[in-house]
Design a protein that fits this description.
By secondary structure, the protein is mainly β. It has two domains: 4-118 and 168-206, Elongation Factor Tu (Ef-tu), domain 3 (Beta Barrel); 119-167, no CATH class. The chain is 7% helix and 43% strand. It is built from two helices and twelve strands.
Length: 208
């Protein structure tokens, strides 16, 4: 069965393995999540499920979102996320509660989270460009230099590496091994680091 869950990043710690090496651990608070919708497009192989996470008050929702929860008799949820699935659609039902009980220690997961935003950054920090000459009156110490051709095509090509916002992107970390599972507190301990600040919303999925 496919594993699809939502949660929050709680923090990091470490543990020592049998050989005495120190290993980083990321602690996640996962679920419980609820299946809020199942979608499929006619004459297409596209199928998806929508799951929700964290209950909220009714007055914090629009009428359209509230109507969806009322239709399926589900308590209003703060976060909704849609996942495409290729098979095992019959294993999901609207209103089904998803928890950590399907996971096993040693299993590998993919985790998607939003990295920290670091504001506007220059070329050296954002793309690891080299610095210009520091002596002989050089005025091109941290500047980009020429960014396009003077003749053909006479414009800056798309995708040119330039200054801009650093971070604040969705990043997927693959093959994170499960070290420990706490079903009572809905805590998941994964080996390795995960981008994002503490409390950041993240999604986990199983590796097929």
């Amino acid at each position: 069965m496919s594993i699809i869950l939502l949660g929050n990043k709680c923090g990091m710690t470490h543990f020592y393995d049998q050989l005495g090496f120190i290993n980083p651990i990321t602690i996640l608070k996962i679920g419980p999540c609820i299946v809020t919708n199942i979608k499929s497009i006619n004459n297409s192989n596209y199928m998806s499920i929508q799951i929700g996470y964290k209950e909220i008050l009714n007055n914090n929702l629009t009428k359209s979102k509230l109507g969806q929860f009322t239709k399926f008799k589900i308590k209003p949820l703060k976060y909704l996320k849609e996942f495409s699935i290729k098979k095992n659609r019959k294993n999901f039902k609207i209103g089904q509660i998803l928890t950590l009980n399907k996971l096993k220690i040693g299993q590998s997961l993919n985790v998607t989270s939003q990295s920290k935003g670091k504001g506007f950054s220059g070329l050296q920090k954002r793309h690891q460009f080299k610095l210009g000459p520091k002596t002989h009156g050089s005025k091109n110490y941290r500047k980009p230099g020429s960014i396009g051709m003077g003749t053909t095509p006479g414009r800056v090509l798309p995708g040119k590496k330039m200054s801009g916002q650093l971070g604040n992107k969705f990043v997927t970390i693959k093959n994170l091994k499960i070290i420990k599972i706490n079903l009572k507190e809905n805590l998941l301990f994964l080996k390795g680091s995960i981008p994002g600040k503490f409390g950041a919303l993240l999604s986990i999925s199983s590796i097929h």
